[in-house]
Amino acid sequence: MWQQILQSVRSFKYPCRSVILAPAALGAGGLLVCWLLSRRKIKTLEMGDGWWGSGERPPREKEDERIRSFQIETSDREIQELHQRLDQARYTPPLEGVAFQYGFNSTYLRKVVAYWRNQFDWQKQLEIVNQYPHFKTTIEGIEVHFVHVKPPGIPKGQAARPLLMVHGWPGSFYEFYKIIPLLTDPAGHGLNEDVVFEVICPSIPGYGFSEAPHRQGFDTLAAARIFHKLMQRLGFQEFYVQGGDWGSRITINMAQMLPKSVKGLHLNFVFITSGGLGRLVSLLLGAYVPWLVGLTREDSRRLYPYMEKNVYELLRETGYLHIQATKPDTAGSGLNDSPVGLAAYILEKFSTWTDRSFRDMDNGGLERKFSMDDLLTNVMIYWITSSIVPSMRFYKENISKNPNAAPDARIGVYVPTGIAAFPQELAHCPRSWAKKLLKNIVVYSYMPRGGHFAAFEEPELLAQDIRQLVRKVEHL
Predict the structure, then answer these.
(1) How many CB atoms lie within 10 A of CB 93?
(2) Looking only at Cα atoms, what is the longest distance across the chain?
(3) What are the tens digits of pLDDT across the range 393-425?
(4) Which of 395, 408, 444, 465 is catalytic?
(5) Which end of the chain is more exposed for a tag (fewer CB within 10 A), N or C?
(6) Cis previous bond, 15, omega within 30
(7) Residue 202: helix, strand or coil by DSSP?
(8) Catalytic annotation on 245?
């Protein structure tokens, strides 16, 4: 049969053959174009599903999707027990002249505990914490807590932009309390009201007032999926996301899962994975000819000397990470039983992660950027919820695996992205490195000051940068 067809084609005169071959060529070209376009199709993370409740997932039972109002309360008995434990604390005298070089200085720790026991007004702080509306809803078998703040007023002709802000460790939703009014009520704080936000601040499951997962495997992908479900349940089809620390990884995963839902991604911390030969070349040449490998002068200033700033410095500050990524329950048991130990463990991070030079101060520089009331409020959120152990487990669920084999390892982020690079962050990530993962960086800002807890420490700077991203995305 095919021989007859070929013979017939050969027997046609040239014009006749052109009539047949031209459409065939066009068809083949069309197939080639379609194939090329399919290869350029943006890959996304599979959203999947999960169950983190106690026991087996109930068969064919529809999840309770109600949004329930919630208020934080503590009993007199809880506070009395806390005071008893504070009174019975034991301390080890510090070495002479070490300041915070060996961790939280016990001489200063005594002063913190004395303030906590005798002057800290928890009821007053509860009023501050409860000033914003709190809610809970059940997702994948566990209760998810979140703060939801709507703007007091919206300029005519505008709409509030939904913004999901995700904390990290050892922080909480309370980190965002100073930035929330700047975002939801800019006019009331002397700012341009061209961009007004409706802010949602969830607690990562296992942190604060979100229920802890009851089984292994709850990682940033699971958290990202749960927060997508939360935003959908609240009625938001499109929204902005912002994160630092674990919040950065979670919001990146959200952008990889459902890029059509994430209008823009803002980060104040970028996870740096191994960059291969290209990263090595960049490091070797960057100290001498930074422009040749895509680094700026400011990148060079923050990166070099590389071994001191990025190897030895991280070794000094990440001992906790190895513990939490391997045996979190062991160390966590002591912290969950001792409020003094818990305070020392958490507050030490708010010292050295805010400014490395604070290690050389007897008081860890803690009250240079934060009030003791704010710091202890964050500690209290961990104490009254007994959430330090599940919060530490989050490291084991994420770091004990090979990062290069993770489902999100080879999936780029194509949503418009803004990065606020604070100078005292644990590690600096130049734009040229970040764009290996984040393919559509529209704002990259070298912040003039600030460290790891950006929203808590420099709310004005962070709010300004978030607004800058939205203006770029929406061409305002």
Answers:
(1) 7
(2) 104
(3) 999 999 977 777 888 888 999 999 999 999 999
(4) 395
(5) N
(6) no
(7) strand
(8) yes
